[in-house]
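Sanity check

After download, print the first record. It should look like this:
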Amino acid sequence: MSRWQELTGGTSGQGYAARFAALARSGKDVHGEARFCAALVPAGAQVLDAGCGTGRVMIRLAELGYECVGVDLDASMLAEAQRQAPGLPWFQVDLAEFEPASLGLAVDFDLVVAAGNVFPLLAAGTEATVVKRLAAALRPGGLMVAGFGLDEGHLPVPPGITLPEYDECCAAAGLTLVDRFATWDAVPYDGGGYAVSVHRR
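Expected structure tokens:
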């Protein structure tokens, strides 16, 4: 069982979507991740949203002209994504078992994005496998972007994977670090408790 499942019981989709909808109504910018991704690859690029949740990032990228696929294990989160954007491709998949071909998907994504603390919320011990599977879905030269918390102030669970550990997983999967930021607004990383990492295949 993933840390996310242990935390939520797989029933948090409606509440999660409602929280971000309220933030958007209050004037908060809820599209930082999509804006960050759009600065990396041009419109029309193939994007895999790994751990897509309720689809907030992917729906915005699709609106901007990207060809997107969303995968997540939490059925309650996917139900919200499908309700908001029934025309987009959503798949219920454990990222540790992700096989694009089994879903009828080509293995040539220009960008894989894992936002929302995906890696710290995986089942313990599956991080390297997930990185390997996501990296394999990228075309040569494609990018993987992951943003996640590193301390208790940025996570709903005790800290899991560290940045050195994540970089080791990426290197083992054939990925090279391109850049690292402290926020989705591309503030340079300063060693704080949250990091957005960009790796290239």
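If your output differs, re-run the checksum step. Summary of this record's structure: The longest helix spans residues 13-25.
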